[in-house]
Amino acid sequence: MLKTFSLGGIHPAENKLSASSAIQVLPIPETVSIPISQHIGAPATPIVKKNDEVKVGQLIAKSSGFVSANIHSSVSGTVFKVDEIMDASGFRKTSIIIKVDGDKWMETIDRSEDLVKEISASKEEIIKKIAEAGIVGLGGATFPAHVKLSVPPGKTAEVLIINAVECEPYLTSDHRVMLEKGDEVLVGTQILMKALGVDRAIVGIENNKPDAIAHLTKLAVNYQGIEICPLKTQYPQGGEKQLISAIIKREIPSGALPIEVGAVVQNVGSALAVYEAIQKNKPLFERVATITGKSLKNPSNWRFRIGTPVKDLIDAAGGLPEDTGKIIGGGPMMGKALTTVDVPLTKGSSGLLLLPREEAARKESKPCIRCGKCVSVCPMGLEPFLLMVLADKKEYDRLESDAVMDCIECGSCSFTCPANRPLLDYIRLGKGKVGQIMRSRK
Amino acid sequence: MSIIVITILALCAIGVTAAIILFFVAQKFKVYEDPRIDEVEEALPAANCGGCGYPGCRGFAEALVKADDISKMNCPVGGVSVMSQVGSILGHEISASEPTVAVVRCNGTCENRPKTNQYDGAPSCTIAASLYSGETGCQFGCLGLGECVDACNFDAMYMDKETGLPVIIEDKCVSCGACVKACPNNIIELRKKGPKSRRVFVSCVNKDKGAIAKKACDVACIGCGKCVKECPFDAITLENNLAYIDYNKCKLCRKCVVVCPTNAIHELNFPPRKETPAGKSTATSVKPVVAPKAEVKAEEAPKTEPTANDETTENK
Amino acid sequence: MNTKVLVAPSPHVHSGDSIQKNMYGVVFAMLPALVFSFVYFGMGAIIVTLTAVASCYLFEFLISKYLLKKVPTITDGSALITGILLAFNVPANLPIWIILIGALVAIGIGKMTFGGLGNNVFNPALVGRVFLLISFPVQMTSWPKPLGFDTAYFDAQTGATPLALIKEGLKKGEPLSQLMHDVPSNMDLLMGNMGGSMGEVAGIALLLGLAYMLFKKIISWHIPVAVLGTVAVFSGILHMSNPEAYAGPLFHLLTGGLLLGAIFMATDYVTSPMSNKGMIIYGIGIGLLTVIIRVFGAYPEGVSFAILIMNAFVPLINVYVKPKRFGEKRK
């Protein structure tokens, strides 16, 4: 029996169309627009102005608090303007728009491909440098990495868990990173272990990626303290709570953080970014993303510069298919539907999914038949059918007592519902309201 | 025979005993309640709309009786007459407040504001608003999913299928403010009803810069400031690229309506202007006046509301 | 691109499961039992089934269209299930007018009164069945004997169900070991060679249906296992306490529509609890009540009543029995 998490879970069609496509480099666009808020927390403060010259890797917006992240230029050229442009949600947000001129990198960045295994930086230096490099969780949640690594007083980290689950259907960027940058990922893992002061790290990989499991298992022999843990393919195993439950069989108490059970989780992409930041002095200004979809000509994986328009990525993969009904930033379960292809790719862009119209369109919602399937798939042990009704009826007290805030918004309930009810839509609404009420109470 | 007598006597005895017990129990457990609460509740309209901000009319009555100063408390349904009645019960002076009515400040009809995408989620404005900017290029305007209509307890609203916008039936609107609270984009506002229901207001809440706003919607306020300059009463302010008419200062001169380059300022229930081409003042009472408006635009004529009927609805 | 892109909150894909798929899945699972009943009871069974199904559809259509003024949702397959289940629950020679009344009560009172599919408290087919059982006790308990395919409808020979035989016998003071000679053997019970309502006789066919529904994940194992397990354990304990007064567990499992009830009627989505824990409590309740009614009650048969009684407890179970939450704080 392979390990998996304790409650619920679903197994959507995997559709890993681009799993065998090696990572390619996306050409640098003519202009990039880099939003100042690409992470959870306070937006960064721009420190460049119109007509400033910038180089690749230069700091252009400074972290504006503890939970915030630096932003670096992904290209060299001149700042065209700092203005509000449309983001993925259609709202206008401040971005730094840079006209590209050549590809001049900061001299401090080591551009060689050589693997540097020796970790010379100290624990404090590592955390400081990770913060400076603007590294955020690259799984999609974009939580600033240095915050997670700063263990609060009174708590101790026992184990580092590397999230290489990639449980979202379609997405393959982490898979490719493991196959092509296995050593770098493992060195990055050791750096993270040093930063946390733990001597054990576990890389969790779902068993629908046997080649990645085999590859990393072979490499891990050379790295002390790193174990590879194959997991049963089950969504949402990539959720922090589910992953910890699957690997070390501990349940994070409701409302608490992973450190409560002595674990810290980092994404495999983040491990690579940490490696590059510490060993190569390279801040986070590029990452790997999957472009995929059943009608797409060429589902593939690309390394792109942050701020590249979504359109460029689609064009590189063979253009927008005729039947596209939905453009999703991220995976089909938790990704965000985009309104246009003119928005920039950001640190959190782990993939781009083009769904055909028939597949994307929701079916008519019918009355609840009380089959209980949402209850049995909920990985948090909640009752989605009830939460939906309560949210619709604005019963916020009961929503709170029925633990709506525990919902991780994985979408298993909506995915499963035979009556096609928009369960998560309403639960998310209720969660928002209850969150507001709870904050105002403090 | 004796059975009947015994039965009747027994029943009477039971009844008397029970009555005595109940009398003492009622005395013992009596809860003192200010009798004025009942009186005030009686005076209130019993609509239980919550427009006052209290849970139902009873809740409002309790609050009124407790309050030292009720000048800031208002029953939107009953208006001044009810409040002065309440005031007389409680011994407060009630200053007359003018009646208000809900106004939809968005004219982003399907024609004026082309859709750029199609929303496919749960039919709730709040859900759509928390997800993204909406189906059009305008991130401030009406989302068109009708949460305000659902919130209305008085059947005073409906969604116009053609325009995709909510319509307020002025006659039925009691100005309770439920729709104002329901709208996640804060489009609906309670404005002074005005003499003969005549009103002038900016039917737009777009705070984008002029070019962006105009691109998203033909009738958006572009923040040009012409109306501000034109207004002889300083009633119009311009903030964040958006003009706003203070209904307490507005004297309904309608000069701003004429100068607005995008027809974003609307006048309601005025008699037709002299220069208005004939045959345009016949719109029916509840029918929204989208079509006539398009006409106006085509003719480059000043914006007019072609009806003088008191029943006319808000159609923005 | 001329068509506009869709925008909706996540998730953007769906399992493809639908109400229809589940309903027709259940219907498919009932097919073996239906075939068995046709084989055993012949023409009568066919007529009863057709009447029940057709009238359920008709009543649902009429009621939703003219009384509720809604768009009728008869395509979802739930009326088909109610119809077949109603037919399963009556003798194969039941007069057509009684079936019509049963269907009207099942759909009209059991289902549409509450607002239609998803809102009913009680299993509609059982409401219809119990109504008929109380109103027309004679017709409802003259069971035709399974005589192989028979074209006759009304004049079939009738016989008592094994449970009724035992109950009557025990009342007369006959020892159980004596009575057991009169009832069919366990093998016959499994194959359906006994008197009874249409759908309850062929245990093997019902078990096939259960296997199919579990395989297709239409239902989970919790309810059938809880019901059957409880009946087996409880009747086993009684049997061991006094073998002469109480029949054994296997006899209880295979007779009187227990399998039909546990597999197809207790597992009805709408009228069973939502959480796994709740389902088990509900199943245990049905099992206990069934044995209690059978052994100590006035009726020989208790499954229908047991399910209906537990149906009434389902809202309560749903409120008080919550699924285990992830990381729930221990009190």
Tags for this model:
heterotrimer; B: 316 residues; alpha+beta; 3-methyladenine DNA Glycosylase II, Chain A, domain 3; 2 domains; two-stranded antiparallel sheet; two-stranded antiparallel ribbon; 33% helix; disordered C terminus; C: 331 residues; mainly alpha
Instruction: Tell me the major beta sheet of chain C.
Output: 2 strands, antiparallel
CATH topology of the domain at 123-279 in chain A: Rossmann fold
Oligomer: heterotrimer
Indicate the CATH architecture of the domain at 123-279 in chain A: 3-Layer(aba) Sandwich
Can you write the helix and strand succession of chain C as a string?
Answer: EHHHHHHEEHHHHHHHHH
Strand order of the largest sheet of chain C: 2-3
Q: Tally the helices of chain C.
A: 15
Mean pLDDT of chain A: 92
Kindly report the average pLDDT value of chain C: 86
Approximate shape of chain A = globular
Which residues of chain C form runs of ≥5 with pLDDT under 50?
none
- Please mark out the parts of chain A with pLDDT under 50 across 5 or more consecutive residues, or reply none: none
N/C terminus separation of chain C: 57 Å
Strand content of chain C: under 5%
Label the structural class of chain A. Answer: alpha/beta
Helix content of chain C: 55-70%
**What is the straight-line distance between the termini of chain A?**
45 Å
